[in-house]
Amino acid sequence: MKDIDPRDLSADDWDELNFPRPKVQGFDAVVERAISRRGFLGGALAFGSGAAVMGTALLKGSTAMAEQSNRFAFEQLAPQTDGTVHVPQGYSWNTLVRWGDPLFSDAPAFDAKAGIPVAGSDRVFGENTDGMELFNVGGKEILVVNSEYANTKTNLPHTEDGSPQSADDVAILQNFQGVSVMELEEGAEGWAVVVDSPLNRRITHNTPMQIDGPAAGHDLLKTAGDATGMTSMGTFNNCGSGRTPWGTYLTCEENFNGYFGATGEMPTQEATAAGYARYGIKGDNDRYNYHLFDARFDVTQNPNEPHCAGYIVEIDPADPEKTPVKHTALGRFKHENAAYALAPDGRVAIYMGDDERGEFMYKWLSRDVYTPGGDTSTLMSEGLLYVAKFNDDMTGEWLALTPETTGMDAAMISIFTRMAGSAVGATTMDRPEWIAVNPTAVEAYCCLTNNSRRGAKEEDGSIKTNAGGDVMDVNAVNPRETNEYGQIVRWRPHGDDHAADTFDWDLYVMAGNPEVHKDGMYAGTSNINAGNLFNSPDGMQIDTTGLIWIQTDGDDSNEGEFAGMGNNQMLAGDPATGEIRRFLTGPNGSEVTGLTWSTDRRTMFVGIQHPGAPFPDGPDSLPRSSIVAVKRDDNALIG
Ligand code: FEO
Ligand code: CA
Ligand code: CA
Ligand code: CA
Predict the structure, then answer these.
(1) Cα(174)–Cα(638) distance, integer angstroms
(2) Tell me: the pLDDT tens digits for 407-439?
(3) How far is the CA of 366 from the centre of ligand 1 (A)?
(4) CB contact at 8 A, 315 and 400
(5) What pLDDT does 9 receive?
(6) What's the pLDDT at 15?
(7) Are 605 and 63 in contact (CB under 8 A)?
(8) Does residue 15 line the site of ligand 1, with CB under 6 A?
């Protein structure tokens, strides 16, 4: 940690740095291992429709897939390495909103040099845009957007190194994160935020939250702020998004551990200490240094505060007065996003990933059924949480997390969900990022972004494990050692029923580089070719026509293993043929994350997080995370 300033890192990169990468294994060994598994993959991936393209011979990464499909209303964009956004011919983009833009007319003016003062810092669009969803509320277009983390050096320009010097400095950082709710309007000049709309709202690290589900009121959630354990303050590291069939927004708390530190002793209570170890809560954490000025984040004084973070949080975009609800029944982990599917009987399934190397995928299943206009109050509190086991024979199971299966009571399963997953033998995954449900078929997809530790060995020769001791050996669904490129797994529940506890799966794509690796698994699957190279799939949404929109958060050096990939990007995939085409590229240094559509489906909103170039305002401007609006020049439907 010493020669890299943690404040210069994105939230995911910071988390990676907490556990040093292993030495990359010899290239030959990687290829040898890959080839030895090809026979298995060849048979195993012959699944479902034409996208089971990934037969043995196709592992080489041919261009056979190119130009097969007419699903795409655009010609593939070439990779780009410059400092702006590109879209295909026939499409245009405009900036909708930049971090620091006002949601209310009393917000302070954005000042790139002096920063934004603490007064009013919760009246602007938050920093580091991530997951987002659009809702139509009484005819108004309401965009709800996560702000995942803060660039402390940019936000606190009066400090030497971005480390807060006062409680006000901490409050500035806390106010730039969380969630922004804002009304949008499309006029002659394009889309814009409706400043002062009564539905505009900021939710920050200090907004009161309700807690429901099995952990509500548990001793481990009782804090100085609320001795009943029924409420807490703030939502943290809001990464991916989700929505419910009843029109609410789900924000997903990911790397919440990064906000806590200790001014003195670490807690010794057994469950607390074990949880800290599993979730990465450390005393000597100087990423934000909240704990130096805000006792809530000092685990020496407030050991239960971290137990109030790491949840799925429900926000009502139609009611700015409504307290957001933390649904502990959906588990506590580093939540990436939340993707719902309705079972044929109306029960609500919500798929979720825990984005850390070797952690798990989960499914929530409600006890009660959803009926439009009916009571929804139990749908995220009464039900059962499951964790995924992927078998090497291309089947899988959702393993129920119950007191009987885990040896933990319901509250402890909700608070220490990772341990519950370990107890039942869940499959360690290559960092589950976004999950997307296909609205045109009974199937879902998860981006497994990469895993530098997959199959890597400790000095004693043993295979590395996750923080719970679960071994990260290669397996069929995570088939590559030191996986730098990532893959997307797809599953189809048995009986065409998302409530089923068994499924079949395949890999929709393994990203790779057939230009660098002529053969073997690092070439990627056959739907990867010289034209559509990418790495580290992360954000994902499937549109109403069934096209899969894949966003990347990977290495954009465009060199070596990553040559030909260019900047981070958004691609579209055809689920039937497997064909994937690049649609949009972000500025260098940025991650493309967050995607939603206007109600009329004529505009696509795309998030550009942490640009490294002066985007979107050009030379000599401060790079600012922004949302762009993408349209077809003929104003036709775009998903
Ligand atoms: Fe915040 Fe795992 O991405
Ligand atoms: Ca990010
Ligand atoms: Ca992500
Ligand atoms: Ca990521």
Answers:
(1) 35
(2) 999 999 999 999 999 999 999 999 999 999 999
(3) 25
(4) no
(5) 80
(6) 78
(7) no
(8) no
**Residue 239 CB less than 6 A away from ligand 1:** yes
Strands 140-147 and 129-137: antiparallel
Who's near 232: CB < 8 A, 6+ residues apart? 208, 209, 211, 221, 223, 225, 226, 305, 308, 309, 326
Q: Say yes or no to pLDDT of 123 above 90.
A: yes
The C-alpha atoms of residue 521 and residue 94 are separated, in whole angstroms, by 39
Give the nearest ligand 1 atom to 148 CA.
Answer: 1
Nearest to 179 by CA among 114, 132, 115: 132
Confirm or reject: Cβ of 359 under 6 Å from ligand 1: no
Residue 422, SS3?
A: helix
Query: Is 72 in contact with 164 (CB distance < 8 Å)?
Result: no
User: 251-277: per-residue pLDDT in tens?
Assistant: 999 999 999 999 999 999 999 999 999
Q: Is 460 exposed, middle or buried (0-12, 13-18, 19+ CB in 10 A)?
A: exposed
| Phi/psi of residue 127, nearest 5 degrees | -85, 165
CA of 551 to the centre of ligand 1 (A): 12
- In 3D space, the residue among 315, 132, 149, 342 whose CA is nearest the CA of residue 241 turns out to be 132
Q: Each residue of 576-607: pLDDT tens digit?
A: 999 999 999 999 999 999 999 999 999 999 99
Centre of ligand 3 to C-alpha 188, Å, is 33
What's the mean pLDDT in 523-536?
A: 96
Index of the ligand 1 atom closest to the CA of residue 334? 2
CA 438 from chain centre, in angstroms, equals 18
E strands within 269-343?
A: 312-315, 325-327, 335-342
What the chain holds in terms of domains, given with CATH numbers, is 6-632 (2.120.10.30)
Q: Does ligand 1 come within 6 angstroms of the Cβ of 254?
A: yes
SS3 state of residue 607? strand
Protein residue whose Cα sits closest to atom 1 of ligand 1: 239
CB-based contacts of 485, cutoff 8 Å, min separation 6 = 450, 510, 511, 512, 513, 522, 524, 535, 536, 554, 561
CA 73/CA 195 separation, integer angstroms:
34
Residue type, 408: M
376 CA distance to ligand 4 middle (Å): 32
For residue 138, the tally of other CB atoms under 10 A from its CB is: 7
Cβ neighbours, 10 Å, residue 367? 13
Q: Which atom of ligand 1 is nearest to the CA of 240?
A: 1
Q: Which atom of ligand 1 is nearest to the CA of 11?
A: 1
Is 336 touching ligand 1 by the criterion CB < 6 Å?
yes
Ligand 1 atom having least distance to the Cα of 449:
2
Contacts of 121 (CB under 8 A, 6+ apart): 108, 171, 172, 175, 176
pTM of the model: 0.92
